[in-house]
Amino acid sequence: METKEIEHDGWVLEIHDNLVKVNIMAQAACASCNAKGVCSAADVEEKIIEVSNPRGDYRIGERVKVYMEQSLGFKALFLGYVLPFILVMIALIVTQEFTTSEGIIGLVALGLLPVYYLLLYQFKDHIKKQFSFKLKKIS
Length: 139
What we know:
By secondary structure, the chain is of the alpha+beta class. The protein has one domain (5-137). The protein has helices at residues 70-98, 102-122, 124-130, and strands at residues 5-16, 19-27, 44-52, 63-69, 134-137. The chain has a 5-stranded antiparallel beta sheet. Strand 1 (5-16) and strand 2 form a beta hairpin. The radius of gyration is 20 Å and the shape is elongated. The chain starts with a strand and ends with a strand. The mean pLDDT is 84.
């Protein structure tokens, strides 16, 4: 079974011991569309990706591909968007059983989000170990 990868072209920005920082240009799906000149939805953003323990020797300015398994991308999507949405919906339904005040119901549901993202932040080091990027040289 073939594992699919998410990859971006970039260049080496910094090198420290067992860490390589790579600058990539992340594009929204519509950034390559022919109509992007008349559409404000096209989005290109510069990002810095940290790659721990890369295999091979790299030099600053060298062109590389940064990649990770596609399944990890889905996991990140789930943790960042899907799970919080599910939690908000559950909070709405459960809170509605205890009160009829829509204001309180909304505040409880929305108040859950900062708590969730704070917990996610607290476990960022553990999560970061699961989301490992890898490098390939571009020939």
